[in-house]
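Why predict the complex rather than its parts? Because the way molecules touch one another can change local conformation, and only a joint prediction can capture that. The input here totals 693 residues.
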Amino acid sequence: MQSFTARMLLGGAALPLLVACGGGGSSPAPAPPPTVVAPPPAPTQNTWVQGRFDPASQFKNLCEFPRSGSDAVGRDFLDESGTLSDELFWLRSWSDETYLWYDEITDQNPNNFSSTLSYFDELRTTRTTASGNPVDQFHFTVDSAEYLQLQTTGSSAGYGVEFVLIDTLPPRDIRVAYTEAGGPGDAAGFVRGSRLLRINGVDVVNGSDVNTLNAGLFPDGAGETFTFEVEQPDGTRETFTVQSAIVSENPVNDVAVLEQDGRTYGYVHFTTFSPATAEEALFDAFDQLEAANIDDLVLDLRYNGGGRLAIASQLAYMVAGPGPTSGRWFETLEFNDKAGGTNPVTGQPINPTPFYTEGLGLTVPPSRQAPTVSKPRVFVLTTDSTCSASEAVMNGLRGVDVEVIQIGGTTCGKPYGFYPTDNCGTTYFTIQFRGVNYKGFGDYADGFAPNQSPDGIETVIPGCSVADDFNTALGDPSEALLSTAITYAASGSCDGRAATASRYAAIPSTADPSSTAAQGSGTPVQSASTFFLADDAMDLMSDPRVRDRVMIESIRILD
Amino acid sequence: MTRGRRHTLAASVLAAVAVTAMTTGCATAATSSDTAAKLAAPAEAQLRDRIRTHVRDALGTDYMADPQTLSETGTMIARDRRIDAAMGRPKIPMPDVAFDLVLVGTGAERLCELRSTADDVAVLELDEALCVER
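Output of the joint prediction:
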């Protein structure tokens, strides 16, 4: 290591004068008694030479406060005794080696920073997108023990209710998107469109007790009880007391065939690319649609926050079929320009994700060929909850010239990914790659937006901007997004008469075969659904097709 | 050692230094003589570090702020990083917390304070020379 010892300035004048005396308001908190501690022994510093970077491996696991023993899953800590400077220099070199926009980081002397977190905040681009949002919105750290707990325990508890956070700042608007049939939320009386007013007495719309609201919306475990006051779509107010539970997940919420004016439309409401359940559910759904010989496909991804990229590839194949996909790939990961053909994190060659045409072995054996409807175009229903792997499906299909027609709202815009990396007890998330399609496009940080006149802009997709319709059941042909898709399919226009399609009883909702909509009555139905659990992204480690290429945990920023 | 312990140690060190280096322990309540201020120049790395550390200590690691706005407007907004959203569990974000710079006191005791509009958020005291009146 190119370091030598030097005494670190810890004199009082060099450090901030932080006094915890309360805020500047009218009722400041009492000042805590001063605590005088002996200064720590002088640590060593590495030498900073602007623009010269030693390998990150030289500083890896050299910790100011090394951990001993093993973590919660039994992996030994590799920490060795080091200094804050070692941790800062590791961050600097690691960012230079792997950050997607490493050449937009201003190289500063790490020794000027008193904490890794403050320094890490600066190791990012400050560039903004065309819409003015930061290009890099996903730069953060998590305590490693906390992150491991999150990864190993998941968050499978809930009420069987998908909440949509339409407006997260006061006045907030939080609604129920759908419920899991038979789940606690369904039994209590939540329906699509229920608007939350109070949780345990806390005002959802304007209240400041965000912690209570989040605790109620996203319970940590089963058996937690909360009281919800809601306004139902018909304007009535109801109060429920609901207990959280472990609710099973149904990734294909609805599959149906609709008919209007002699054309048939396949409809699939797909909610998560979860490796635990999604693969088999998709195969079963597309088996039905393939057999139905549909004219057009409507893929409802409006609440699909993402998941496994390999399943996204399967879905794209099921839409497009072998014609446009054979000999081409679905998506590849693009790292910074230092990477060449090698993944800078794993050291392995970068191989594109192919269009998978058979089971991945997750829940479908590799011997099972994927069904396909083989369509040259697909209607995709979207909102800003349509993220990551869902966007990858859209982008991947466009990469092989399948026409994607987008109905709904702008997607969330998450084409990037990272390998969460622990060093000395902190897990760092810095953007290290983006997914690009067969045509090399992957710059959609502002999301995909529908427009009838897209003007050739890659992120503006032919289609119609339509607000989500919380007053109508999902899968009901009169629901605004689905109705617009059907209208557009017939006329090429976003305007026109409302769709009056009827659903074939032959292929009812997979989750609610007795639904009234399935019988074509047009009466809103209690759409079955998955419970609220955003699948935790692309975990290549568990994908047998790519396990040999990716040796450490990887997350696609999705969900 | 856990992360939490490290933070505790850092805070203790800071507190100790503050006690030895300061003549006034606490910021005073806002008075009519207080003057809205901004940083005289873009914050250097060490000052950005101090401000970010202050925000983190005061509000927690879920918050982030850009100290550079203090040289432009004299104000700064700490926002929820939305880690939950990036990790697949979008929640209601914590409310924004506003900070602004104020010149307080007179003569040798004149200071530049970074104050928050939120209750119970400590004041960060800076050298007067770092600030100018807005």
